[in-house]
Specification:
This protein is of the alpha/beta class and 403 residues long. The protein folds into 2 domains: 8-183, Flavin prenyltransferase-like (Rossmann fold), CATH 3.40.50; 191-402, CoaB-like (Rossmann fold, 3-Layer(aba) Sandwich), CATH 3.40.50. 33% of the residues lie in helices and 23% in strands. The chain is built from 13 helices and 21 strands. The strands form 6 sheets. An 8-stranded mixed sheet has the order 12-11-8-13-16-17-19-20, sandwiched between helices. The chain has a 5-stranded parallel sheet with strand order 2-1-3-4-5, sandwiched between helices. A two-stranded antiparallel ribbon has the order 6-7. β1 (8-13), α1 (20-31) and β2 form a beta-alpha-beta unit. The longest helix has 17 residues, at 386-402. It is elongated, with a radius of gyration of 25 Å. The two termini are 22 Å apart. It binds cytidine-5'-triphosphate. Cytidine-5'-triphosphate (CTP) binds at residues 195, 256, 275, 277, 279, 281, 307, 309-311, 326-329, 341, 345.
């Protein structure tokens, strides 16, 4: 039985010669047991009739914002929420450009902009259009939003020119979807909460105690997890990076107390929680209501109090089936300190960064990690870009979580 059985799939069809292949794609998806809702752009209807698609899928094709004779409104928001995946095949240069830049002038692009589900895009166009810097840039933008690009194949095109631009065959597109939902790396449907960035602890209305955390590691984890189909909430301290994948739910906080509060609220529904934030261990005992003045005053002595340990607080409340991951940033006695933190905070896995490794830790684009499991086994990784490190960490979580 196919993993696509019972899955809700929006099939977006745009106006290109390859639209004739969408009929076969619709049929294969239905045969695999998926519920398929076709959405056509106005120009797609020049290439294939809505009747063909509605007959094959058993659902009326949606193309306009509302049905002309009844005035019935088609909610792109509801559709976006209904879907487990959205597949746009064929995707023309024009639609790809609209998707990349938010030009919501038809039902397909509007639904795309509302969709929280993973999106698969199968471009089809002439080789020169495919190679144009504008198309290349737009496809790169779609990738940055976490969309999956199903690369076109090389071969004879509608123009009779030979090159890259042929839409991938429907069988291969279905195989790609099946792989997405069944792969051991898949996080489809998993609820994940990630803490990220530093916390700022206020001294007075204009000053704070903070740290150099950039949030890059936490955000890289959020992007990669969302790309693999997880429902991601990131509870983020003040950072300059932002989430690119619109499916990521971002909750902004400032202090450790606020971060604990927000994380606790998301924690109940979480399957996997990753504590990637660099939480300030202490905060000023009191916050001055007015700016602390310099003139005529002795330098103040700061009285600090302990902040809550978010990982330890929530680790203690972990229920069966929840999987908790922490980070340990160490300068010495790294392995023992990290293993100790794993125990103390009731984590299932801890990611160790050593500040002795150059290119690892705060602010950098790269990281070098060692993963320690609950049973004490250690996996050492090379220095890599944080997006690749995120993929390694999620692979490791998948393998342990699915066990
Ligand atoms: N952590 C947390 N809340 C805190 C402190 C840490 O949730 N108040 C989490 C971090 O997100 C990380 C793990 O605990 O996943 C370890 O953080 P780290 O700062 O290395 O450990 P500490 O417990 O603060 O220990 P120390 O600073 O003494 O090394």
């Amino acid at each position: 039985m196919s993993v696509l059985k019972g899955k809700h799939i929006i099939l977006g069809i745009t106006g290109g010669i390859a639209a004739y292949k969408s009929a076969m794609l619709a049929r294969l998806l239905v045969k695999a047991g998926a519920e398929v809702q076709p959405i056509m752009t106005p120009s797609a209807k020049e290439f294939i009739t809505p009747l063909t698609l509605s007959t094959l899928t058993g659902k009326p094709v949606i193309s306009e914002f509302f049905t002309a004779n009844t005035g019935e409104w088609h909610s792109h928001v509801d559709l976006g929420l209904w879907a487990d995946a959205m597949v746009i095949a064929p995707a023309t240069a024009s639609t790809i450009g609209k998707m990349a830049n938010g030009v919501a002038d038809n039902m397909l692009v509007t639904t795309y902009l509302s969709a929280k589900a993973p999106v698969f895009v199968a471009p089809a166009m002439d080789l020169d259009m495919m190679a144009h810097p504008s198309t290349v840039r737009n496809i790169a933008l779609l990738r940055s939003y976490g969309n999956h690009i199903i690369e076109p194949a090389c071969g004879e095109l509608a123009s009779h020119l030979v090159g890259k631009g042929r839409m991938e065959e429907p069988e291969r597109i279905v195989a790609r979807l099946e792989e997405f939902f069944s792969s051991s790396q898949s996080l489809a449907g998993l609820n994940m909460v990630i803490t990220a960035g530093p916390t700022y602890e206020k001294l007075d209305p204009v000053r704070f105690i903070g740290n150099y955390s950039s949030g890059k590691m936490g955000y890289a984890l959020a992007e990669e997890a969302a790309r693999r189909g997880a429902n991601v909430t990131i509870v983020s301290g003040p950072v300059s990076v932002s989430a690119k994948n619109p499916a990521i739910n971002v909750v902004k906080v400032e202090s450790a107390v606020e971060m604990l509060d927000a994380t606790e609220r998301a924690y109940g529904a979480a399957d996997v929680i990753i504590f990637a934030a660099a939480v300030a261990d202490y905060r000023p005992a009191e916050m001055a209501g007015q700016k602390i003045k310099r003139d005529g005053h002795e330098p103040p002595t700061l009285q600090l109090v302990k902040n809550p340990d978010i990982a330890a607080t929530l680790g203690a409340k972990k229920r069966a089936g929840q999987f908790a991951v922490g980070f340990a940033l160490e300068t010495d006695n790294e392995m023992d300190n990290a293993a100790d933190k794993l125990q103390r905070k009731n984590l299932d896995m801890i990611v160790l960064n050593s500040l002795r490794d150059s290119g690892a830790g705060f602010g950098t684009d790269t990281n070098k990690i060692t993963i320690i499991d609950r049973n004490g086994s250690r996996t050492v990784f090379d220095l890599k870009h944080k997006s690749e490190v995120a993929a390694d960490i999620l692979d490791h979580i998948s393998s342990l979580y699915h066990k």
